[in-house]
Amino acid sequence: MIYPDQGEIYKAAEKKHAALVFFVHFYQGNKKALRRHIQFVNSLGYDAYAFNLKDKIKDHYGLPYSLISKKFGLKHAMADQIEEHLDLLKNYPQKIIYSFSNVSACAIEALARRKPFDIEGLITDSGPSFNFLTSAYNLYTHSIKISFLPLRLAATPLLAFGWSPELHKHIREDLRKLPEGFRILSIRGWKDPLIKPGDIDLVFEPCKNLQW
Questions:
Q1: Which residues, in sequence order, are bridge partners of residue 98?
Q2: pLDDT tens, N- to C-terminus, the chain (212 residues)
Q3: Which residue, of 11, 66, 108, 174, is most buried by count of CB atoms within 10 Å of its CB?
């Protein structure tokens, strides 16, 4: 089968688990950047899947919009894309999502819609942040570097609005839709310059239905 968005299944040399690890790369990344992660889960006996997100405004003709949630913003448009790819993998009725940074919020939005529910667990690496504006400013300071301070200050709210006018206000609502005891492994770097561990805690701590 040919998958959209350069989607690809990476088979384990010796398959030991029924679940597929479904990768969702970080903002303005690509599936090639996950090569070591894919090789690692393959070595554990898991098949893996990765694809390229449409994570730029131009990918959506300047108007990122979710046809499912009826909301404007890259966060919601990418949630639609993630859901589309999950739906294509019907040969894997069990899946584990492995997502990165603030794009984990898109994965969580798609995850909350799953019917029938076919996700065994979620791994979030370095995100998402409940303080999106701060993480956006840090992105332009440390990663997509904008050295001119006034331009950085102007770019931050533009990124936030293009991401979602609601920022991450509804992540907790999405998480509370997940089954009781749903398992989440939250990986974070204590010295991560983009997203502080405490801002990740703010996402998950209020959701008592989670085992995280």
A1: 23, 123
A2: 899 999 999 999 999 999 999 999 999 999 999 999 999 999 999 999 999 999 999 999 989 999 999 999 999 999 999 999 999 999 999 999 999 999 999 999 999 999 889 999 999 999 999 999 999 999 999 999 999 999 999 999 999 999 999 999 999 999 999 999 999 999 999 999 999 999 999 999 999 999 99
A3: 108
